[in-house]
User: Fold this.
Amino acid sequence: MLPVPLEHYLVVAAILFILGVVGVMVRRNAIVTLMSIELMLNAANLLLVVFARVHNDVGGQVMVFFVLTVAAAEAAVGLAILVAVYRRKGSIDVDGLNILKG
Amino acid sequence: MLELVWTIPLWPLLGFLLNGFFGRKWGRTTSATIASGAVFVSFLVALASFFALLSFPGRQFQVAPFEWIGVDGFSAAFGFLFDPLSAVMALVVSGVGFLIHVYSAGYMSHDADQPRYFAFLNLFVFFMLLLVLAGNFLLLYVGWEGVGLCSYLLIGFWYKRPSAAKAGMKAFVVNRIGDFGFAIAIFLIFKHFGTVNYLEVFARAPEMVAALGGTLTAIGLLLFLGATGKSAQIPLYVWLPDAMEGPTPVSALIHAATMVTAGVYMVARCSTLFALAPVTLMVIAIIGATTALFAASMALVQNDIKKVLAYSTISQLGYMFLALGVGAFAAGIFHLMTHAFFKALLFLGAGSVIHAMSDEQDLRKMGGLKKFMPTTYWTFLVAALAIAGVPPLAGFVSKDEILWKSFSSPVGHWLLWAVGSLTALLTAFYMFRLVFLAFHGAPRFGHDVHPHESPRSMTLPLSILGVLSIIGGWIGWPAVLGGGAWFEHFLAPVFTKAEEVLHLEVHASHALEYGLMAFSVLIAVVGIAWAYSWYVKSPAKAEAVRTRFTGVYSLLLNKYWIDELYDAVFVRPLIKISTAVYRYFDLAVVDGAANGLATTMQNASAAGVKTSTGRFRWGIVTFVVGCVVAVGWAFWVYLQGMVGA
Assistant:
C-alpha cells in the first residue's frame, strides 16, 4: 500500500493539471504556454505512476515512458515553431498570431 | 389505301422540319419547292384516300397508328377518322394550301426570311390536317391550338414591325379565350361520356339527353364559344381585321380558306350534340346571321383592300354558321368549300395588286389597273361574281342553298333569311365597289408606281382558283334546278343522326324555292348595279352620301368602336389588376420571401463568423470549455448510473 493516502496524490495531480490549463489559457508568452503544457502532461504522468503502484501493474509506468518521449518530441517541435515565429514577428506574444481571423 | 390516311399530315410536318433546320442553308428556291411538294403529296394521298372511301362500306374509317395517352381511367389514341366530312376538309386544305404555297414562292421571292415562312406555313398545314382528320376531341384540340400558334407566328412574320407583333398577340389572346371555353367543353364531355372519341360520344349522346339536361346545352355553347374565337364571330371576331398585317398569302390560307373554317368544321362534326340541344342551334344561327350583317356593314366603307376582304370573310363565315344553325349542315360545309375557292382567289388577287403597286394597299390610291394586270383582273372579277352570288358560279349555289334553308327549315326563320338576303345585297355592293375602285376608272396613283402583271407562279394559282370558283358549285347543283345535289348526298351519312333529331324532312313548295332563288339573283344584280352607279358612272354620289351621313360613316369606319370598347372594359382593367398583383404579390411577397431568406442567412453567418477570431487563446478557452462540458456530462451520466444501481 501507499505510505501517503491516494487522495493526496489525486489532489496534487488535479492542482498541477489545473495550473497547467490556466497557464495555457492566461499567459501570453509562448514559452510559458509550452511549459504549462509540460505541466499538464506531468500531472497525467503522476496519476499513471500512482495507479500503477495501487494496482501493482507495471503497465502504468511503461506508459509514462511513452508520454515522456512524446512530451519531449512535442516540446522540441513547439520550440522550433516558436523560433520561426520569433524570426517572423520579432515577438513571441501569442495574441499576435491572428491571421486566421474571419 | 385507307390505312395510309394518317400519313396525310406527316408530309407537311416533314417539310417544316427540313425547312426549319436547313432552309436557310438550302436557299429560297429549295425551301419553296420542299414546302410546296410536301403539301402536294398530302393532297395526292388525300385524293387517293377519297376515292378509296367512295367504295368503302359505311364510308367511315378509323385508324390509330399508335397509343397516345393511356392513364388509369382515361385513354386517348392518336386516332384518325376518315369520313366524307374529313375527306372534303382534307382535300380543301391540302388542295388550296398547295396552290397558295406555289403562289407564295412568287410573292415572297424578295423576302430573305422565305425559308422561315415556308416552315411555318407547312407547320400550319400539318396542324390543320391533324385537326380535320382527328378522330377524338383531344387530337382535334391539339390541331386547334397548333393552328392558333401558327397563325400567331405568321401574322407576326415581319416581327420587326410593331403593328404586326401586336396583331399577332391580339389574335392569339382572343383565340385563347375561345379555346378556354372549348377546353371546358371537352372536360365536360369526358366527365359525362367517359370518352373523347367522336363515334363513341355521338353514339351515346341521344340516350344521355335526359340524364344530361342543361349540361348538353352548356357543352354546346362552350364548344361554340371556341368556334367563335377561331372562326371570328361575334364576340371574338376582333382579331381578324388586324391579322391582315401578315403576308397576303397567309391571309388567304389561314384567314380565309382554312383556319377560320375550323370552327365551322367543328360544329358540323358535333352536329349530333348540337341537334340534341336545340337552344344552341338557335344561338348559332342568330350569331351567324348577326355577324354576317354586322361585318358586311363595316366592309362597305373600308379603304384598305385587305380589310374589305377581312370583313367579307367574317361575314361569309357568319353565313356558314347560319347554315349550321338552321340544320343545313351540308350546305354550311358546301359554302365553306366554295368560299375557300373564291376568297383565297380574292386574297391572292389582292396580293397580286399589292405586289404590283409596290406594297400600296389603299384603294383610294389605285384605279385603272385592269389594263396593267389582265389575268389578275379577270380572275378577281370571277371571284367577285362568285361571292356576290351570280349563277352559275360557285357562290350562287352554296349561298342560295343557305338562304333557302334558313327560310324553309323547321328550325329556320324568315327573319334569318331576311338578314341573310340583306347581307347578300351588301356583299355584292362592297365587293364590286372594291373591283371598280381598284381596277376601273382613271389611275389615281403617282408616277413612281409602275403596276405590272405578276409572275407565272402567282397567276397560275389565280387561274386555277378562278376555274374552281366557276365550276366548284356544280357538284352540289340543287335538285330543283335539275342537278344531282351530289355534294349533299355525299355528306349525308355524317349528319343523319342530327337530321333525324331535328326532323328535317321538309316538303316546301318548289315554287317558293324558285321564287327565293330568283330573288337572291336579283339582289346580286341590284348590288352590282348600285356599286356601278356609285363608283363608275357617278362617283360624286358616293361622296355626297358620305358627307350627308358623317355619323353613320364614322361609326362604320371606326368599326362601331368595338375595339375601343373591349380595350376599356376588358384590357385596361386586366392590365391594372395584373400590375397590382405584380407589385403587391410578386414583388412584395414572393421576391420578399426569397430575398428575406437570403438576408437572414447572411445575417446569421455574419454573426456566426465572429467566433472565428483567429486568436490563439480564444481557441484554447473554447477547447477547454468544451472538454469540461463533455467530461462533466459523461461523469454525470456515470453518476446517474451509479445511483440507479
